[in-house]
Write a structure and sequence with these properties.
By secondary structure, the chain is of the alpha+beta class. It is built from 3 helices and 3 strands, in the order E-E-H-E-H-H. The chain is about 35% helix and about 30% strand. The longest helix has 14 residues.
């Protein structure tokens, strides 16, 4: 099973969204960009993947999501994204 930890960015909102999924990542992003979806990402459709990591298990991917969310630091998130470029 391929699972993903990912960070999305909305230029309109100038915000990041942190998530994890074991679904196809492109399909998951498409659902985030669906204007019919409620919640944090549902009101906009300009979310783009700016960072992702692949994991073998759901537990690993969701643990990574929880760890990064605990940072509560935009600077650390940007540093993580920039570490890949």
């Amino acid at each position: 099973m391929d699972c993903h930890f990912y960070i999305l960015f909305s230029k309109t909102r100038n915000r990041f969204y942190i998530g994890a999924t074991c679904d196809d990542l492109d399909e998951r992003v498409r659902r985030h960009n669906s204007l019919h979806k409620k919640g944090f990402t549902g009101k906009l459709n300009d979310w783009k993947v700016v960072y992702s990591e692949d994991f073998k298990t759901k537990e690993e991917a969701f643990a990574r999501e929880r760890a990064v969310k605990k940072w509560k630091s935009r600077k650390k998130i940007i540093a993580l994204i920039n570490s890949e470029t």
